[in-house]
Amino acid sequence: MNESYQNKRFRRSGSDRYLAGVCGGIAEFLNIDSTIVRLAFVVLTALGFSGVFVYILAWLIMPAENEKRSLLEQIIRNFQGKPSEN
């Protein structure tokens, strides 16, 4: 396999973002234009599928590009009383 493919991480984008960087991160991971990913979320939402729910879920699960842990993992660690390391 290509070495750069093996080093790819599924993370929210810090530079290509409108809200939380989810679409930009997905686009960077798949190596496609982020506009295509954004349009897919709009189409899913317009067709009655829960594009907004999927976006929020991805925002919670995907860590930001400069963080080790996702937002959901940080919330769970705080709830458990463990230190939240970024």
TrEMBL record:
Keywords: Cell membrane, Membrane, Transmembrane, Transmembrane helix. The chain crosses the membrane at residues 39-62. Its main location: membrane. It comes from the Bacteria. It is found in: Cell membrane. One of its GO terms (cellular component) is plasma membrane. Residues 8-65 form the Phage shock protein PspC N-terminal domain. InterPro entries: Phageshock_PspC_N, PspC. The keyword Transmembrane applies. This is Phage shock protein PspC (Stress-responsive transcriptional regulator). It comes from Nocardiopsis sinuspersici.
